[in-house]
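We modelled the chain as a single entity of 73 amino acids. Its sequence is:
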Amino acid sequence: MLRALGVAGLLATVPLMLIALRALAGRDYVGGALVVFAAAAVGHLGLELVALCADPAPALGAHDEDDDEEPRA
């Protein structure tokens, strides 16, 4: 559920950036900057939600017991 919300947040940044480009092209610098700021916040929230659902990376130096290494004496 969180991953779907995160992906939706990431995809929502595209129309926001298009709105910002339209505002900046019309020389509405304050409005364009506010929309860029909003797009950054929405994109960051989307990345955080996707990262919450990601599998944790294995710790560095961690070995599985099923490895083909010789046991130490």
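As a brief sanity check on the tokenised model: The CA atoms of residues 3 and 69 lie 37 Å apart. The longest helix spans residues 29-53.
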